[in-house]
Amino acid sequence: MKGITLSIISAAVLIGGAIILSGDGTSGADSPIPAEQGIATDGNPQIIDMSARGGYWPRVVRARAGVPAVLRMRTEATFDCSSALVIPSLRYRANLPPSGVTEIQIPPQAVGTSLEGTCQMGMYSFAINFE
Q: How far apart are CA 48 and CA 69, in angstroms?
């Protein structure tokens, strides 16, 4: 009985350590665009750079309301469902190329608007918050 308990505790510690070391994938460490860069580039139109591969990075972006924007979605060897991009409020649905940049025009949005995008399966998502 003591051996079984010790085995269960050891397994839990190993699994927990593996989860902590691998992270949850939101840090952007494997992404060409770090998760911390969640602000659109000033300009008219403002530029929003994101990457799609195993999810979207950054996951949340702040942008200026009332100014048109261009979402530049970058892919690099993207073969998962994040390449099947859906932005419902723009009625946008497309399969992104495995590698390259796809530009998506976003008309001026009102203050407080949150533009949300997902993969076609709904597993990965992102939001652009207009302030």
A: 7
